[in-house]
Amino acid sequence: QVQLVESGGGLVQPGGSLRLDCAASGVTLDDYAIGWFRQAPGKEREGIVCISKNDRETYYADSVKDRFTISRDITKNTFYLQMNSLKPEDTAVYYCAADATMYRSSWYLCRTNYDMDYWGKGTLVTVSS
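and the corresponding structure tokens:
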């Protein structure tokens, strides 16, 4: 059984940093496309950063570019989202996702309503003073 479990969410002040972890079990992530998505209250889900299969390319949404960084540790079967310079508008439930199917561009994974194979249950990030 495949599971993705997010951790690291919480309350942070504007300008602060958080790191979200996504730990995978039942699957080896090294050949999977991966991504982070978020959904703010009353808004649609947004793909904020995605990496295509074989790490061919990475897409960052303009809203997080130069502030957020995705990475993965194959040895730990975990990937991460480092979030810096957080803003109140970053408040949302953050979801990690992974996909094993045929190659799709990182832009496609993040910007369309493509349903990746596996999803975590989400972790809440609240940016507030």
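(Above: one complete record from the training split.) The chain is about 5% helix and 45% strand.
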